Amino acid sequence: MTETVTDDGTTRDTESEHPVSYPPSGDFVAQANAGSELYQAAKNDRLAFWAEQANRLHWHTPFEQVLDWSDAPVAKWFVGGELNVAYNCVDRHVVEGRGDQVAIHWEGEPGDSREITYSDLLAEVSRAANAFTDLGLVSGDRVAIYMPMVPEAIVSMLACARLGLTHSVVFAGFSSSALRSRIDDAEAKLVVTTDGQWRRGKAAPLKDSVDEAVDSAASIEHVLVVKRTDIDVQWTEGRDLWWHDTVGSASPEHEAQAFDSEHPLFILYTSGTTGKPKGIIHTSGGYLTQTAYTHHYVFDHKRGKDVYWCTADIGWVTGHSYIVYGPLANGATQVVYEGTPNSPDEHRHWNIVEKYGVTIYYTAPTLVRTFMKWGRQIPDAHDLSSIRLLGSVGEPINPEAWRWFRDVVGAGSAPIVDTWWQTETGAIMVSPLPGVTATKPGSAQTPLPGISAAIVDDDAKMLGPGGNGYLVLDEPWPSMLRGIWGDMERYKDTYWSRYATEGWYFAGDGARFDDDGDLWVLGRVDDVMNVSGHRISTSEVESALVSHPGVAEAAVVGAADETTGQGIVAFVILREGIENTGDALIAELKAQVSKEISPIAKPRQITVVPELPKTRSGKIMRRLLRDVAEGRDLGDTSTLVDPAVFDAIAKAGQK
Ligand code: WTA
């Protein structure tokens, strides 16, 4: 690439004519929360830096020690400190005189809306906390939350936090069997849900799935139901309760009690390399510190001025950290939208931006690419001038989508923060700092102040500019996971065994440094796929497929997909005597995956094959299947037991 530096300070790639990097405007720099001295401060004394960030929070009892890493890889942050997470996210703003400020501009999919101030939120969370207490729940108990994006979902999370209950939010798009396994794993006592959910103008049942899931689930005592769509529901007397009856009649006064900094706040299940999802455990003080810190600096958030919108669902970690905990700890005013971006039409997001004057818009690359497909005339028909900062998360953003996002949505000037992090990291780890970093399309660029990341090779050698290897985190960080629920061995094995001698966290992502030392995340190096920013493991889908009586064996790969990043492609072998009924069978298999996991895990393509390519040691060669799925020529097949298998697979694929 040939580069030239132009008058405005941008570096241009003279071949493509696109700037290589985009320095922030002088106006942005002048008002930015972050300055380059932040990196220096963290470098001078990392733990003192984090102690300072922790003091963004209200501590009932101050901490005595910043980090205790003596029991590595299980960290203790802000040792001896006590706080109440909900107090920090809600009460504090009321106590400090911001009760009338809007916390949530809630926009329902059918067009209804609610404005919830911090005072309103405090009353609601207090009511829910009183109602949960009346149900007999005590600190340490687990609560499953299986809800669409309604305010009561956020209220439920905060009520749990207030009482020291550990929530486990299960994405409402997951099937009843996925919900059941998560309830069983955490032994949840309560499920909070809704009667139904709005999806593209239609009410779809939701409580039905809960009924199926909790039928004979030993741990569940109650199902608390928010009426959202008014569709018919089955009712189990004694077990099922309406939210409006119980929470609605509870007192709006509740005094928050303080919990230890390391008190478990939530469990969130995520896909790993084996079929069984992992319950990632996050605790209180460190998690809230880092979500609040990153929300403040990475989004350049100004309390009382900005209108912030993160388009994630609370079923994912992005919703936990950047809808609920980070923004609310910082007293943000935010938009929460219930529905899909094309309901009632493709203008919906831009109508919302205009209606509320959204200034910060945080979304996923897959949605940006969808907007691109719909065409720029749609956002162009709106006044998006309120937007001053854009964010991206969930997968690498391709430079073309990055530029479109900046030009069309950000009026050619809004900085884009490409934020790399994971369910496990709890909060943003690598990202440009707006007002400091000259941004580069496609690169997450720099570990945040206080965060240490490296790219290493198989032999644990740290690589410099130009290096290509694995992303590791070589120092503990406040919002790091504290384990996997019920399986600490798996925790150590998954994240800490690869570089055990060095004591580094293995993120499971490949990454490279460019010649300027900027970091580019290249995607997963394990068997985890990334479909529209959702993590789905190949073995999870494989086990759903083989649970169909007709399937003997299945192999699943993630193949490049223009819109969703990766698409799921499956190859199956049928059992003896099972007839291949073509489309009917394929439809049945897809339905099986929806039922076992979720419609989001449904393969894009399923091919019935006579055999699967295996190495001599019996491992399925996914790399070769990926080549087939992406239509590439097959490379070296010499390690295969039977290279002829491929002709058959390639032929089946062409049918
Ligand atoms: C990927 C989502 C490139 C990565 C917060 C990671 C990204 C996985 C980025 C975590 C990004 C997330 N650039 N890749 N900005 N952000 N990823 O747990 O592969 O749902 O390991 O957390 O998403 O997905 P998770």
TrEMBL record:
Keywords: Acetylation, ATP-binding, Ligase, Magnesium, Metal-binding, Nucleotide-binding. Residues 37-89 form the Acetyl-coenzyme A synthetase N-terminal domain. Its cofactor is Mg(2+). Residues 1-25 are annotated as: Disordered. It catalyses: acetate + ATP + CoA = acetyl-CoA + AMP + diphosphate. Residues 9-18 have a biased composition (Basic and acidic residues). GO terms for molecular function: acetate-CoA ligase activity. It comes from the Bacteria. Residues 540-619 form the AMP-binding enzyme C-terminal domain. Mg(2+) binds at residues 546, 548, 551. InterPro entries: Ac_CoA_lig, ACAS_N, AMP-bd_C, AMP-bd_C_sf, AMP-binding_CS, AMP-dep_synth/lig_dom, ANL_N_sf. It is an enzyme of class 6 (ligase). Residues 93-485 form the AMP-dependent synthetase/ligase domain. This is Acetyl-coenzyme A synthetase. It comes from Rhodococcoides corynebacterioides.
